[in-house]
Amino acid sequence: xxxxxxxxxxxxxxxCKNTNMQTNDNKSSNNNLNSVSNKxxxxxxxxxxxxxVGNADKILKATKKQDYDYLSKIETEGNLAxxxxxxxxxxxxxxxLCASIIENKKDIGFQDNFNFTKIxxxxxxxxxxxxxPEFIAFFSTIDExxxxxxxxxxxxxxxxxxxxxxxxxxxxxKEAIRKxxxxxxxxxxxxxxxxxxxxxx
Length: 201
Prior knowledge:
There is one protein chain. With 201 residues, this protein is an alpha+beta fold. It has helices at 9-43, 56-65, 68-76, 89-102, 133-140, 147-161, 171-190; strands at residues 47-54, 80-82, 121-122, 126-130, 193-200. Strands 2-1-5-4-3 form a five-stranded antiparallel sheet. Strand 3 and strand 4 form a beta hairpin. It is globular.
């Protein structure tokens, strides 16, 4: 059955300083998030998306240098989930929402899990950014047997977003979700990082 979810002065000064630093960091992260998200949402379905697990620094550097040998190796080793499905960035947020309902989890969103504390790549034709451990944890606990229902609900919700388009669940979409769950489990098991990559179609 499907599950539903819908003191001293010094200490005070240090506390205030830390709070101020955190506020500034949050503002910086929010500005970065808005900048990247706005750009990607504007480009929309003209982008191909992938999720890769491994060492984030190496993946990001390989993306920056367009080191195709290294990036191909990630795919060969089975550490890549290909989401080249002609979808927009917000559609992945919808995927997370649908998965959270079926799995009875809190909706953690997708774009809110961009990690701007590390370097990220944002070039005109491609880019990459590390995702938070929370995003990995979210997908690592999903049972692959739920892929069918998650994909069905996902496409149902996307059809509401794009009412003028005929949207049907594809095997590529199911495989993308299945692979994302798999690499998340691998990342959790081996303490890998996860990186989100995008390129112009």
